[in-house]
Design goal:
about 220 residues; two-stranded antiparallel ribbon; alpha/beta; about 35% helix
Length: about 220
């Protein structure tokens, strides 16, 4: 019985189970907590990091906005990709300041909530309202992610991306005890926003910490 597709290719239920089992093994090993980029902790699957590299090269954005800075490893990764492109700035937002975050001329740290009007106004002033790429990786409760999506989605450029991270929790397929989170927020958001769609290109490595979370605003 064929029941799921990746980039148009059909796969069997047995193959889907294998993918989910690997996802469980990878996630539950907590190896993603012991992953770093140039010495700075980065809580990402390396397959997703590769996808971000492809997305940045394909779209050549002038700005990338990230909610949820934590230790700054992902911000440094994006900044290094921008170095290779010779353009771009990372604006990263978090409610909790932390010491020893990486310093880089392409990283701008903002202190505050990703759903704060002042933060969003500041970001829009910096970018001139041009938001081709926003990555949501802050509070993972459904309510907060829905609020972030409502705040940021109107400002995403046509053809731009709004990415919701860690939608694999609450049983998709890991941490079934988490409760409604990013995945559930994505489902509700897409039902109410027909100008956004799940960009299936980013399913190609089978395992992603952001299932259905790679959203694209339609041209």
């Amino acid at each position: 019985m064929l029941n799921f597709k990746v980039n148009g290719q059909e796969y069997s239920l047995q193959e889907e189970v294998i993918v989910d089992l690997f996802h469980h093994i990878y996630y539950e090993s907590r190896v993603w907590e012991r992953t770093s980029w140039f010495g700075h902790q980065i809580l990402k699957n390396p397959l997703d990091m590769w996808l971000y590299q492809e997305l940045l090269v394909a779209t050549q954005p002038n700005f990338l906005v990230e909610s949820g800075t934590f230790r700054g490893g992902s911000a440094l990764f994006y900044a290094h990709m921008f170095d290779l492109l010779g353009k771009g700035e990372v604006i990263t937002v978090d409610v909790i300041p932390q010491e020893r975050r990486p310093n880089h001329p392409r990283i701008r740290y903002l202190h505050g909530s990703s759903t704060d009007d002042n933060v969003i106004s500041n970001v829009l002033e910096i970018t001139g309202g041009n938001l081709p790429l926003v990555i949501l990786d802050a509070d993972h409760s459904k309510e907060h992610v829905l609020a972030e999506l409502a705040f940021w989605s109107p400002h995403i450029s046509r053809g731009g991306h709004l990415i919701v991270e860690d939608s694999n929790i609450n049983g998709h397929p890991v941490r079934p005890d988490f409760g409604p989170g990013p995945y559930e927020a994505i489902v509700d958001f897409l039902k109410a926003n027909s100008d956004f769609a799940h960009d299936t290109y980013f399913d190609k490595f089978f395992v992603t910490q952001n299932p259905r979370g790679w959203l694209k605003r339609l041209p």
